Amino acid sequence: MQQRLMWSAIVFGAIFYIVMFFIGEKSSLGLALHLTEIDTGLSRAINVVATMALFLGIINLFMVHGRNIVARRKEWPFSLVVFATFSVVTLFLAWQYRINAQERRLEAQTADAVAAYRAAFSLADPVERDRALQALPPEQVALAGRYFEYQATYRFHPQKFYLDTFISTLAATVMSLLGFYITFAAYRAFRIRSVEATVMMLSAALVILGSDPVGGWVSAKLNELFGAQVVNLVHWADLDNRVANAGMQRGLQIGISVAVIAVSLRILLGLERGLTQAPQAEK
Amino acid sequence: MAGSISSRLAATLLAVAVCCSAVGADSSSPAEGASAATGTALVRAVLPRMLLLVVVAGVLAGIVMARRGRVLPSRDIAGLLAFEEAVARATEMGRPTLFTTGGGSEMKRVQLFASMPLLREVARLSGQFGNRLIVPCCYPETMPVHINAMRDGYLDAGAIDAFRTEDVRFFPGGLFFFAMGSMGWMLEERPAACFYFGYWVADALLFAETGQTVQAMQIAGTDQLAQIPFFITSCDYTIIGEEFWAASAKLSQDPPLLGSLGAQDVFKLSVLLVIVAGCALCAFETVARFFAELKGAFA
Question: A62, B57 in Cβ contact below 8 A?
Fold first, then answer.
């Protein structure tokens, strides 16, 4: 039953989006069929389900980790860390929400005044500009001034602080690991284990030499040695990138594009195992 | 029964697509019409749709022909043949198997869904050999998809008792935090076989190198061209590009799926022919001039 429901949902969604793709939401028929509105409605429905799932997730998180702490299960201090982190992040977000609300309120109050001030200030002729600025009512100037003062003053943004201080730093740390890993991987790539590995190594050596000033120097020296312009590593590396590499990538992309359509169709028809077919033991 | 439903659904879908295409092309055509510019615009609007329809019709024809027993042969993929060996090796070593779809496989990625039959197969093998399968997961909404595929795999093997939901673990915080958490889990559990399939981004090498550190046999597959070199250098087997999309069909040996593979091959062959014909036409003038000059030289 569950499998059938899943399949029905997939088929309904697929048919709708196929219709939308082929007709086009901006075409006259698309507008007549209210495709955009249906799409928005579907997106909203997904948002509602996601929000419900979020709340369920929070409740589940509290129940699981709460039980861990109460029963003093193995590694229960980590559950305390979960609660502490959750509380700190929630506090930061609530604080940020309050700041954002204040900003929105101020923007709403001063929007007209700021627009009038900007319009006057944007005049090219200085005499006309001064006249237009002087013609503005004092209360509007005061409101615009309040807005600009607010913008110019430094304010602590908890969300930005949290993202910049913790998240970005930690993400950058993990990203920097990639540098080391790329070195290890490159070393492994340069080990000649088979014919394919040899071709890959030669190609990599050519690209490295061609992309480096050393490549030009080596080419010049070799040409001097041969007494003719026969070696041009920079050009060969470029050729490798533009012809061999690009041709291979385009070939793969053609294959991938066709395969994506075929797999999507197989999923849609319920032919793909692991998604819509019942397990063998249940049959 | 399922087959006939699929056929009818396929026919309906194709009819819907053809009708929509025709109606869409008609509704998007401008009222003034007739000019060359609008004609080109119309061709631009209709051509991709028609091309898509041709591919879809070809794939459906391949499926129908396969149902009638006519399947085009396709070569074996070494990485897929090594699935059993990898899980068996992990079982012999008394260490678990790991399967992950990576930090890029969000719910909207079709690569996630294309990987699920492979997860099911790995779960089936794990259930058959009595091995533990661990699955790190980056997005909460994809967890039920992973759990379902894994459960079905264990059910296929008749070893549902060995299936534990806790072995599908969610690591929150986005790509790098998922990678960090998973790497920690890998170092802790030391899996002897690692499978990386799906939509991979910057975390590909982080996983593959950690797998190397724990001396796991690694099989990877992605259609992300930028990540393929990393997998090739760090994994024992890499399933490249379109092979990844063919993997589930090759594993299941299901005739309709193999039929769709055959149709893809035919379409690719026709694209190749178009490319060759295009090259020949482009070169035609130059070749003709060359022969004219040659003729002039000998005249």
Answer: no
Is B153's Cβ below 8 Å from some Cβ in A? yes
Per-residue pLDDT tens digits for A56-85: 989 998 999 999 999 998 889 999 999 999
Q: Give residues with Cβ within 8 angstroms of A106, minimum separation 6.
A: A146, A147, A150
Q: Least CA distance to B269: which residue of chain A?
A: A255
> 3.30.479, 3.30.410, 3.40.50, 3.30.70: which CATH number matches B78-252?
3.40.50
Give the neighbor-by-neighbor strand order of the sheet with B97-100: B168-170, B133-137, B97-100, B193-197, B217-222, B237-240
CA B165/CA B151 separation, integer angstroms = 8
pLDDT tens digits, B67-87: 888 888 888 888 999 999 999
- Across the range A224-235, mean pLDDT stands at 84
Closest alpha carbon within chain B to A189: B233
A253 in B contact zone (CB under 8 Å): yes
Report helix, strand or coil for A73: coil
Name residues 2-31 of chain B within 8 A of A (Cβ).
Answer: 2, 5-6, 9-10, 13, 16-17, 20-21, 23-24, 27-28
CB distance from A175 to chain B under 8 Å?
A: yes
* Contact call for residues B48 and A47 (beta carbons, < 8 A): no
Q: Could you report the per-residue pLDDT of B230-239, keeping only the tens digit for each? A: 898 889 999 9
Distance from C-alpha of A30 to C-alpha of A32, rounded to nearest angstrom = 5
Q: Is the ipTM of this structure higher than 0.90?
A: no
Q: What is the DSSP letter of A227?
A: T
Distance from CA of B292 to the nearest CA of A (A): 30
Q: What is the torsional sign of CA B211, B215, B221, B226?
A: positive
Are the beta carbons of B220 and B208 closer than 8 angstroms? yes
Q: Which residues of A touch B179 (CB under 8 A)?
A: 174
Low-confidence ranges of chain B (pLDDT < 50): 1-3, 27-33
Give Rg (Cα) of chain B: 24
Distance CA(A238)–CA(A251), nearest Å, equals 19
Q: Which of B80, B166, B176 to mutate to test the interface with A (most CBs of A within 10 A)?
A: B176
Which residue is listed with tokens 């894994």?
A: B150
Q: What element of type H or E holds A176?
A: helix A168-189
